[in-house]
Amino acid sequence: MIQRRTLQLGAGMLMLSLASACSVLPEAEPITFYNLPSPQLTQNQAQPLPLSLRITTPDASYALQAPRIMVSPDENTINSYQGARWTDPNPALLREHLIQAFQQDGSFRTVTNENQALETDVHLYSDLRQYQTIYRAGTPQITVTLDAKLVDPVTRRVIAAKHFQLEQAIDDPQVPAVVKGMGAASDQLARELISWSRSSLADMAAVRVQQPD
């Protein structure tokens, strides 16, 4: 009987301690998820290139592989905005934005990603170096840095390579304004990538037109 009462007492004290522990645990931080604004490109009036393009997910550093919305208070540190997340990791987010932008522009016959595993004429590979807000002299600005390569998937030859860097000052440091600024910078990156891709692949497209069906 004494042993049974001891066990009951011990169980009661354990439950009490667990309840006390639960009461002092911090509440989970509320998180708001943000979509990158949809691309706002106009239809290219030129004839589409007779080429299919695959835009692969950019390679990125460990910090940028997360869905966090990144911010650098100075040149040497990188943090994230508290309570804010993208709906996808940064590289996948940018990849989908670029695909939509290329499709809106209509410069290529088809545009896909690597997940669809379709046969394509050209692959667009890239390294995402920066995709964040950076404070310079106390002023926040959106910074997007991308190293891109157009590659022939058959020969693995690099057709063209280029470094892209965009910087855009923002007046409001709050997250909604940052998200809007990231969308505008991503649109500008897409425009530059499209223009560069068209000019770099003009010769390849001309050969394709001359080939018999």
What are the SSEs and their pairings?
Layout (H helix, E strand, L loop, with lengths): L1 H23 L7 E3 L14 E7 L3 E2 L7 E5 L6 E8 L3 H16 L2 E5 L9 E15 L2 E13 L6 E12 L5 H26 L1 H9 L3
Parallel strand pairs: 1-5, 2-6, 2-7, 3-7, 4-7
Antiparallel strand pairs: 4-5, 7-8, 8-9
Helix pairs in contact: 2-3
Protein name: ABC-type transport auxiliary lipoprotein component domain-containing protein
Pfam families: ABC_trans_aux
**Rg to the nearest angstrom?**
25 Å
**CATH homologous superfamily grouping:** ABC-type transport auxiliary lipoprotein component
Strand content: 25-35%
Please mark out the parts with pLDDT under 50 across 5 or more consecutive residues, or reply none.
Answer: 1-22
Mean pLDDT, rounded to whole units?
A: 87
Structural class: alpha/beta
The CATH topology is given as Rossmann fold
Largest sheet: 9 strands, mixed
Q: Determine the fraction of residues in helical runs and give it as a percent range.
A: 25-40%
Shape by Cα distribution: elongated
Using the coordinates above, name the CATH class. Alpha Beta
Q: Note the run of SSEs as H and E.
A: HEEEEEHEEEEHH
Helix run count: 4
State the end-to-end CA separation.
93 Å
